[in-house]
Hints:
Elements: E1 3-6, E2 17-20, E3 29-30, E4 44-50, H1 59-69, E5 70-81, H2 86-90, H3 111-120, E6 126-133, E7 137-144
Parallel strand pairs: 1-2, 1-4, 2-3, 4-5
Antiparallel strand pairs: 5-7, 6-7
Amino acid sequence: MEKLDLGCGYRKREGFIGVDKSPVSDATVICSLEHPLPFCDEVFNEVWGNQILEHIHALIQLMNEISRVTKSGARIEFRVPYYKSEHAFRDPTHVRYFTEKTFYCFDATTTWFKANARLYGISCRMKVISLDVGKDVIKVVFIRS
Length: 145
């Protein structure tokens, strides 16, 4: 079972293939998440990303790539800073903010997705199965359809 840890930094999860742009990280694969992922289609059963999406300029492209490299039924989990938290704004490397609604733009079952995905170039095949909004962090889990 192949598992992918995006933006692993110094804390690559055990049993995961770590991806990070920093050559001094614990990554297995050094590459930018702003470009296509260097993996074949439908390889991964699980994707993990902790405090990484807020650093990504090309979020739609990355979400499309995650959909491409995951198998049907794959579990995709992210943790991001909640836009109401000071932590979202404290780090000067953050380029975006996340609300309770942001991840539903990537859920292929939503009305918004059906009406707008093609216009914005979103081709993900995912469904939000869990979304937990805390004081500082949003935790979201998708299942790849």
